[in-house]
C-alpha cells in the first residue's frame, strides 16, 4: 500500500458518501439562488451590474466563508480523524506504510474532492446567469473568465489554506471538535481584521490578517470606479498577492509540522492531553490496584422517583454539563480568544468618524462587544449544541447512559441549561472586562450595570437561548452532527437574506426580537415592549421545538426516524401534553397580541408593498407635478408634545400667496402619509369644494376654489393635526418622537402640491414597477428648479411663530427667540410647560421641534463688529466633556465667517442634543440640533486627534450663511452651495487653529471618504458642480477641491468670491427676482478671482472628474556644506473620468507642492515640514532637487493630500 492507493481509497470513500453530494448540491443551489433573486441587491445595484466581476468575486468568497469553510473542515478534518473516531487506527497502522504516505494519501484525496466540491460555486452562478427570469438590463455580456478567475485565484488558494490547516490540526489532535475550534480561530482573525479597517494606517495590516482574502480584495478594490467594478478582473497583485502568499506559507508550515510530528502511536496525538490512570482502574499490564478498597454491594437498592427527584437530577446534571463544557480545552481556548478580541477592541479607542475616539460609556463598550456577543457566541453555540447532543455517542457510552432511569427531558434540558450556564459565565466575564476597561480609562462614573444586564442577559443571551432551542431540535431531528451544524448555519444565513424576498414580519423571522440602539438620553425607549413580546413569542415557539426534540430523542440503538416516531408516541404522556398545550397557548396568545399591534393598530407593509405604493403615488399623481400653486408666506402654529406617549397635537395656520402670474383654480395639499397622523381640520378662508378621491390612498387633497386665487392674492389655511402612536409597529418605528429627545421637522405638517420625495429613487426598482429611470435632481437650466429652493417648492421665506408645550420636566425649542415661558394645565388635564418663539425676520420654510430634559450652558459672545450673540448649549445631564469645545467652535466660526463672508443674521445661536438614533447634526435658523454621537461623547486628545466637536460645530454654524442667508435652487449642484461651502468654511476655521501638518490627517480622511464613495456609487458619478445629493462628492470632494483651490489662488481671493456670491444671492435679492442661485453662479464668482494660469484647474476640479496618480519613485540626499540636497524622482499622471469611471489621460501643467520632512522628534505626534514649496510639473517623469538646512527623514509630492490621488501612500518616501 502506498500513498497513491490511499489517495484512491480516500477519494472513492468520499465520492460514495451522501454528504459529498449534499455539500455539492447545497453550494450549487445557494450559488444559483443568490444570483437569481433579490438577495444579490446587497452586492450590486444601479450601475453596478449583477454579473460584474467584483460582484462575482465577492459572492464567491462569501459563499466560501459561509458554507465552504464548514465543508472544508468536514472533508479535510474527517479524512484524518475518521480512523481514530472509528477506532480503526490500530488495524490500519499495522500495515507496512510510512507516515508521510499515509498523510499524503489522505490529504490529497480529500483535497481533490474539496476542490471538485467548490466547483459548484462558479457552476451555480453561471447557471443562474442563464435563468430566463433575469433582467437583461441588469447583466453585462457573459464572460466565462469572470466566474473561473475567482475560482482559481481565490477559492483554490482558500481551499489549500484552510484545508491544510484543518487537516494538520485534525492529524495532531485527532478530534473533530478541535478542528472546528481552529475554524473559529480563523473566523476570529477575519473579524479582527475587520476591526482594523476603520483606521487608514491599519488597512493594509487588516488585509494581510484575513485568512480568507475578503479584506485583501476589499483593500485592493476600495477605490475602484463603476467601470472597473463591472469589467476589471481582481488579479493576484499587490496586497492580495502578499495575503495569499502569507497564508499559503502558514498552511505549508503547518503541513510540515504535521508530517514531522505525526505518530502512529494510538495513545494520542501531539495536541491530545494524556491523563494519568485514575486510582481503581486496571493498568494495561494487569493486576489489581491495592489502594482501591473493594466494598460489598448492598443487598437491596431503593429507587426513588418523583418530581423533586427529577428536579434534583436536573440540577446535578446541569452543573455536570456546565463543568464539562467549562473544562473543555477547545471551549476555554475559544472563550479566551473571543474575550481577548473584545479586550483588544475595547482598549483601542480609535475607529470613529475621521478616526475619532469616544468616551468609554457603557453603550460604547457594548458596541465593541457586539462581535463577541453576536456572531462569535452563535458559532460557539452551534458547535456545542451538536457536541452535547452527541457527547455520549462520541465516547461510546450511549448504550449504558440510555439505560439509566433518567427521562429524556431531564437529559436534554440539563444539557440545554448547562450550555446556557456556560454562556452566562462568559457574558459575566465580558461585563467585568468592559467595566474594568471603563475604570482604567477614567470612566468609572460611566458604568451602568443595568444597561449591561439588560443588553447582555436580556438581549444577547435571550437570543442565544432561543437559537439553542432550535439547535437541539435540528440536531435531534436530523441525527447527524455535520448535517445539524450545516443546517443551523444555513438557517442563520437564510435569516439575513429572506428580507430581500419580502419576508419581514417579526412573526415570521425567527428570533427577530431586538432592543435596538441604547441612548444615554432615551435609554432603550419604546423598543422594550415589542422586544419583550417578540422574545416571549419566539421562546414559546422554541420551547415547542424543544419538546418535540425530547419526544424524538435517540435512546439506545433505535436511530431510525420511523422507530423514533413510533417510540415518541409513547412519550406523549399527560404532563408532556399539558406542557405542550400551555406553551402553545403562550405562543398563540403572544403572536396574536403582536399581530394586533403590527397589523390592526398599525398597517403592516413590507418593503415590496411600500415600493408598490410609492410607484402608485407617482403613476396616479405625477400629472399634478409642476402645476402653479400658492406659496406659504407665514406660519403660526401651536404644538403640544406628549413625550411619554410619543404623541403630538398641532393647531395653526399658513398664509398662502399666489406668486405666479396666472390664477390658481385648484389648491393641492399633501399631508404626512402615516397611519399615526390624523387630520382633524383642513380649511381654507375662501369658498371651495374638496375632492376626496386621493385622500385614503395618498393623503392627497385637492380643493377646487369657487373663485380662482389671482396673482398677488392670499388666502389662509387652518389646520389641526393629531399624531397618535398606537401599540408598536413591525419595523420602521418612529425615532423622531421619543420620551426624552424628541426632534422632528416640518415634514409632519401639510405641504403644498405634489411631493417628489415620495417617488421611487432607484432606477432598478422603478423599472420593476414600469417606471422610467429618473434624474436625481433637475438640470441647472430647468426653469421650475431655478424658481424653487432646495428646501421645497411650497415656500420661499416665511414669517414664523410657534408655541410649544411639553412635559413639565422638559424644555421645548423651536427656531426663533423665546418670547414667553409659562406653566399651565394642558389639553390632557396635566401640568405642562409652555414656550412661545417668534422670529424677527423671515426664514426658510425649514424648522425643527426639539424637546428633552436639558441642562443649559450659556455664554455671551461679541462679534468682530460689536454685535452681541447669546451662545447656548442644551445638553443631557453628564454630557459635559465637550461643551467648551463646542462653545469655542461657535465663537471661532462666527469670528471667521463674519470677518470673511458678512454679518451673522441672528442674536442667538443654540445647540440642542438629541439621541444617537440619528448620527448627524442639522442647522436651522439660529438653532442646531446635534446628535449625541456627533461630539457630546467624543474623547479628544489634542495632540493626536481631529477635534470632531469643534469641527462639526463650525460646519453647522457655516450653514447659517450657506443654506440660510443664501438658499440654493433645487437643481443639480445645489449641495455644493450649501454642504461643500460649509465643509470648506469649517476646514478654514480648523486651518487657523492647527498647523498645516495636522491638516494632512483631516484631508486624508476626506480623500479616503470620497474615493470609497466612488466605489459605492449606484448610478453615476457627477462633477462637483453637478452633484445630485451624493455625500461623498458634496462633503468630501467639495472640501478637498475648495481647500486646494484656496491654496492655489489664495484664501483671501476665494473668500472674497464667496462674499460677493452671498451679497448677490442673499434672501433679499431672491425675494425680488424669484430666481435661486446654482453652482454655475458660484463658479462664475470663483472664475472671476482665479488667475489665468490656474483657471484650467477650476474647470478640472469643479466641472469635471479629475484624478491624479502621484508617486515618489526615488528620493536621494547628499550633504552640501551645511545644507542637505534632496533629489526626488517623481511619477505624475493626470486623468479625467466619465460618470462610470472610464478614464482618459490629460496633459500636465500643474503647480504641485513638494515637501521634505524632518525626523520626528521624540514624543511628538506631528511631522514637521522642513521644505514646502510648489513646483511646476509638466512631464510624467520629472526630477526635482531642493535644499534644506536640517538632515531630512522623508520627502515626496503633495504631502498634505490636497490633490485627489488614489494611492496617496506612495507620495512620500523615506530617504
TrEMBL record:
Q: Which GO terms describe its molecular function?
A: metallopeptidase activity; zinc ion binding
Positions of the region Disordered?
764-791
Q: What does the UniProt keyword field contain?
A: Membrane, Transmembrane, Transmembrane helix
Which residues belong to any copy of the Peptidase M1 membrane alanine aminopeptidase domain? 891-1077
Q: Where is the composition biased (Basic and acidic residues)?
A: 764-779
InterPro entries cross-referenced by the UniProt entry? Peptidase_M1_dom, Peptidase_M4/M1_CTD_sf
Q: Which Pfam families match?
A: Peptidase_M1
Residues spanning the membrane = 61-81, 102-127, 147-169, 176-197, 245-264, 329-347, 369-390, 416-437, 449-474, 486-503, 536-554, 575-596
Could you confirm whether the keyword Protein biosynthesis appears in this record? no
Give the top-rank taxon of the lineage listed in the UniProt record for this protein: Bacteria
| Name of the featured protein | Peptidase family M1
- Source organism per entry reads Spirosoma fluviale
Amino acid at each position: 500500500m502506498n500513498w497513491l492507493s490511499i489517495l484512491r481509497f480516500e477519494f472513492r470513500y468520499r465520492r460514495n458518501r451522501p454528504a459529498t453530494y449534499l455539500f455539492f448540491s447545497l453550494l450549487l443551489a445557494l450559488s444559483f439562488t443568490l444570483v437569481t433573486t433579490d438577495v444579490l441587491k446587497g452586492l450590486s445595484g444601479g450601475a453596478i451590474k449583477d454579473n460584474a466581476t467584483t460582484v462575482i468575486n465577492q459572492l464567491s468568497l462569501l459563499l466560501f466563508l459561509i458554507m465552504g469553510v464548514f465543508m472544508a473542515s468536514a472533508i479535510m478534518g474527517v479524512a484524518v480523524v475518521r480512523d481514530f473516531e472509528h477506532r480503526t487506527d490500530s488495524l490500519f497502522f499495522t500495515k507496512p506504510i510510512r507516515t508521510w504516505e499515509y498523510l499524503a494519501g489522505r490529504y490529497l484525496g480529500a483535497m481533490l474532492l474539496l476542490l471538485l466540491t467548490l466547483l459548484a460555486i462558479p457552476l451555480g452562478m453561471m447557471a443562474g446567469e442563464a435563468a430566463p427570469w433575469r433582467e437583461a438590463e441588469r447583466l453585462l455580456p457573459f464572460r466565462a473568465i469572470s466566474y473561473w478567475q475567482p475560482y482559481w485565484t481565490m477559492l483554490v488558494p482558500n481551499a489549500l489554506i484552510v484545508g491544510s490547516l484543518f487537516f494538520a490540526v485534525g492529524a495532531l489532535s485527532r478530534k473533530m471538535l478541535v478542528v472546528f475550534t481552529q475554524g473559529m480561530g480563523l473566523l476570529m482573525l477575519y473579524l479582527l481584521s475587520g476591526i482594523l479597517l476603520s483606521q487608514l494606517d491599519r488597512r493594509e495590516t487588516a488585509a494581510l490578517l484575513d485568512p480568507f482574502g475578503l479584506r485583501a480584495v476589499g483593500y485592493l478594490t476600495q477605490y475602484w470606479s463603476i467601470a472597473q467594478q463591472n469589467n476589471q478582473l481582481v488579479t493576484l497583485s499587490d496586497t492580495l498577492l502578499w495575503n495569499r502568499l502569507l497564508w499559503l506559507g502558514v498552511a505549508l508550515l503547518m503541513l510540515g509540522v504535521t508530517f514531522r510530528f505525526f505518530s502512529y502511536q494510538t495513545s494520542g496525538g501531539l495536541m491530545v492531553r494524556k491523563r494519568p490512570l485514575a486510582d481503581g482502574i486496571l493498568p494495561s499490564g494487569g493486576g489489581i490496584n491495592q489502594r482501591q478498597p473493594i466494598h460489598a454491594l448492598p443487598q437491596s437498592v431503593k429507587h426513588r422517583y418523583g418530581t423533586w427527584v427529577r428536579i434534583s437530577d436536573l440540577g446535578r446534571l446541569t452543573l455536570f454539563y456546565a463543568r464539562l463544557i467549562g473544562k473543555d480545552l477547545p471551549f476555554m481556548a475559544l472563550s479566551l480568544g473571543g474575550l481577548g478580541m473584545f479586550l483588544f477592541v475595547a482598549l483601542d479607542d480609535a475607529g470613529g468618524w475621521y478616526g475619532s475616539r469616544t468616551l468609554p460609556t457603557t453603550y460604547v463598550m457594548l458596541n465593541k462587544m457586539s462581535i463577541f456577543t453576536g456572531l462569535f457566541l452563535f458559532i460557539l453555540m452551534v458547535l456545542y449544541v451538536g457536541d452535547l447532543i452527541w457527547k455520549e455517542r462520541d465516547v461510546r457510552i450511549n448504550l449504558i447512559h440510555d439505560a439509566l432511569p433518567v427521562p429524556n427531558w431531564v437529559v436534554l434540558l440539563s444539557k440545554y441549561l448547562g450550555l446556557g450556564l456556560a454562556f452566562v459565565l462568559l457574558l459575566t466575564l465580558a461585563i467585568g472586562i468592559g467595566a474594568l476597561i471603563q475604570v482604567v480609562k477614567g470612566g468609572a462614573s460611566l458604568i451602568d450595570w443595568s444597561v449591561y444586564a439588560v443588553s447582555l442577559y436580556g438581549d444577547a443571551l435571550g437570543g442565544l437561548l432561543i437559537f439553542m432551542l432550535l439547535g437541539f431540535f435540528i440536531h435531534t431531528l436530523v441525527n447527524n452532527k455535520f448535517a445539524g451544524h450545516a443546517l443551523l448555519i444555513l438557517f442563520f444565513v437564510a435569516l439575513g437574506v429572506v428580507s430581500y424576498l419580502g419576508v419581514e414580519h417579526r412573526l415570521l423571522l425567527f428570533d427577530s426580537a431586538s432592543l435596538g440602539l441604547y441612548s444615554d438620553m432615551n435609554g432603550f425607549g419604546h423598543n422594550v415592549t415589542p422586544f419583550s413580546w417578540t422574545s416571549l413569542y419566539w421562546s414559546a415557539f422554541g420551547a415547542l421545538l424543544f419538546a418535540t426534540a425530547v419526544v424524538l430523542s435517540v435512546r439506545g440503538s433505535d436511530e431510525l426516524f420511523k422507530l423514533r416516531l413510533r417510540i415518541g408516541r409513547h412519550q406523549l404522556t399527560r404532563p408532556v401534553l399539558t406542557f405542550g398545550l400551555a406553551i402553545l397557548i403562550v405562543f398563540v396568545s403572544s403572536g396574536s397580541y403582536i399581530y394586533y399591534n403590527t397589523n390592526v393598530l398599525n398597517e403592516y407593509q413590507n418593503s415590496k408593498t411600500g415600493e408598490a405604493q410609492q410607484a402608485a403615488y407617482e403613476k396616479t399623481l405625477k400629472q399634478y407635478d409642476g402645476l402653479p400653486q400658492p406659496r406659504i408666506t407665514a406660519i403660526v402654529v401651536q404644538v403640544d408634545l406628549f413625550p411619554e406617549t410619543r404623541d403630538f397635537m398641532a393647531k395653526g395656520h399658513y398664509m398662502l400667496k399666489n406668486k405666479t402670474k396666472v390664477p390658481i383654480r385648484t389648491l393641492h395639499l399633501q399631508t404626512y402619509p402615516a397611519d399615526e397622523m390624523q387630520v382633524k381640520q383642513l380649511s381654507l378662508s375662501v369658498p371651495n369644494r374638496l375632492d376626496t378621491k386621493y385622500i385614503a390612498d395618498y393623503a392627497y387633497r385637492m380643493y377646487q376654489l369657487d373663485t380662482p386665487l389671482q396673482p398677488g392674492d392670499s388666502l389662509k389655511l387652518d389646520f389641526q393635526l393629531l399624531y397618535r402612536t398606537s401599540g408598536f409597529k413591525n419595523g420602521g418605528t418612529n425615532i423622531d418622537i421619543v420620551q426624552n429627545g424628541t426632534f422632528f421637522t416640518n415634514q409632519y405638517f401639510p405641504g403644498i402640491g405634489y411631493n417628489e420625495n415620495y417617488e421611487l429613487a432607484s432606477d432598478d426598482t422603478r423599472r420593476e414597477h414600469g417606471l422610467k429611470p429618473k434624474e436625481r435632481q433637475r438640470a441647472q437650466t430647468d426653469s421650475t428648479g431655478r424658481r424653487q429652493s432646495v428646501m421645497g417648492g411650497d415656500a420661499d421665506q416665511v414669517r414664523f411663530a410657534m408655541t410649544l408645550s411639553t412635559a413639565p420636566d422638559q424644555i421645548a425649542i423651536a427656531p426663533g427667540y423665546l418670547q414667553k415661558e409659562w406653566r399651565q394645565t394642558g389639553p390632557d388635564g396635566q401640568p405642562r410647560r409652555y414656550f412661545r418663539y417668534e422670529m424677527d425676520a423671515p426664514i426658510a420654510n425649514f424648522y425643527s421641534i426639539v424637546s428633552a430634559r436639558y441642562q443649559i450652558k450659556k455664554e455671551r459672545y461679541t462679534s468682530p463688529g460689536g454685535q452681541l450673540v447669546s451662545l447656548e448649549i442644551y445638553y443631557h445631564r453628564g454630557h459635559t466633556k465637550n461643551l467648551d469645545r463646542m462653545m469655542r467652535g461657535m465663537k471661532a466660526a462666527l469670528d471667521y465667517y463674519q470677518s470673511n463672508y458678512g454679518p451673522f443674521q441672528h442674536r442667538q445661536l443654540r445647540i440642542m442634543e438629541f439621541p444617537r438614533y440619528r448620527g448627524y447634526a442639522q442647522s436651522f435658523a439660529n438653532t442646531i440640533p446635534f446628535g449625541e454621537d456627533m461630539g457630546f461623547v467624543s474623547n479628544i486628545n489634542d495632540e493626536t486627534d481631529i477635534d470632531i466637536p469643534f469641527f462639526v460645530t463650525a460646519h453647522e454654524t457655516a450653514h447659517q450663511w450657506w443654506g440660510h442667508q443664501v438658499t440654493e435652487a433645487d437643481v443639480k449642484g445645489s449641495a455644493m452651495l450649501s454642504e461643500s461651502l460649509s465643509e470648506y468654511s469649517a476646514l478654514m476655521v480648523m486651518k487657523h487653529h492647527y498647523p498645516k501638518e495636522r491638516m494632512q490627517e483631516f484631508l486624508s480622511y476626506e480623500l479616503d471618504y470620497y474615493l470609497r464613495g466612488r466605489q459605492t456609487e449606484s448610478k453615476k458619478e457627477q462633477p462637483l458642480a453637478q452633484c445630485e445629493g451624493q455625500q461623498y462628492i458634496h462633503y468630501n470632494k467639495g472640501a478637498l477641491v475648495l481647500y486646494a483651490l484656496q491654496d492655489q489662488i489664495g484664501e483671501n481671493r476665494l473668500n472674497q468670491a464667496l462674499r460677493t456670491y452671498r451679497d448677490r444671492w442673499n434672501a433679499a435679492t431672491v425675494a425680488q427676482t424669484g430666481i435661486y442661485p446654482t453652482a454655475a453662479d458660484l463658479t462664475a464668482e470663483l472664475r472671476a478671482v482665479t488667475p489665468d494660469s490656474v483657471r484650467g484647474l477650476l474647470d478640472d476640479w469643479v466641472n469635471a472628474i479629475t484624478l491624479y496618480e502621484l508617486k515618489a519613485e526615488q528620493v536621494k540626499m547628499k550633504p552640501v556644506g551645511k545644507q542637505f540636497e534632496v533629489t526626488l524622482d517623481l511619477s505624475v499622471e493626470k486623468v479625467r473620468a466619465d460618470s462610470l469611471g472610464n478614464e482618459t489621460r490629460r496633459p500636465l501643467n500643474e503647480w504641485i507642492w513638494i515637501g521634505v520632512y524632518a525626523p520626528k522628534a521624540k514624543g511628538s505626534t506631528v511631522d514637521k515640514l522642513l521644505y514646502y514649496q510648489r513646483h511646476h510639473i509638466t512631464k510624467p517623469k520629472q526630477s526635482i532637487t531642493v535644499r534644506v538646512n536640517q538632515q531630512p527623514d522623508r520627502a515626496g509630492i503633495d504631502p498634505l493630500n490636497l490633490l485627489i490621488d488614489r494611492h496617496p501612500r506612495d507620495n512620500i518616501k523615506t530617504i
